[in-house]
Amino acid sequence: MSDPDIYVPSQTEKGPLHARDVEQARMPCFLGLDYPDDNGHLPETCPLCFDDMTHDSIFRRLPCNHLIHKQCIDKWLCTKDGSCPFCRETFYHLRRPIVVRESLPEPIEDEDKDELEVGRAAFVLWWKKMLCLV
Ligand SMILES: [Zn+2]
Ligand SMILES: [Zn+2]
Known about the structure:
Elements: E1 6-7, H1 19-24, E2 29-31, E3 58-61, E4 67-69, H2 70-80, E5 98-99, H3 110-130
Antiparallel strand pairs: 1-5, 2-3, 3-4
The chain binds zinc ion (ZN) (2 copies).
């Protein structure tokens, strides 16, 4: 019943997300300067790297409303776990189906490739002769 070309990842299993899942998820990014005050206060430090969150920091607001450097949270989500490192809310449901590529055509054997090259060289030579270049 399922399409063999589509791989549907688990929506509940622990583990990291794919970078593409994070990119396509609705988790807005802000530049510190543009962050609207009525959305709550900007934390002074990033909970992951403990660096200051400044007005030129780019950060992401997670669905749980936690604010973390974009670079730090993306790395966390893609290498550690698809969850908020702060409150442990999970985002495994953001995993999207992956289209599994059809198998590529058989690679040409090295021998055949050599033959192909020899054939091509012979053809070029013949063609040059035809044009009286040799
Ligand atoms: Zn950080
Ligand atoms: Zn959170």
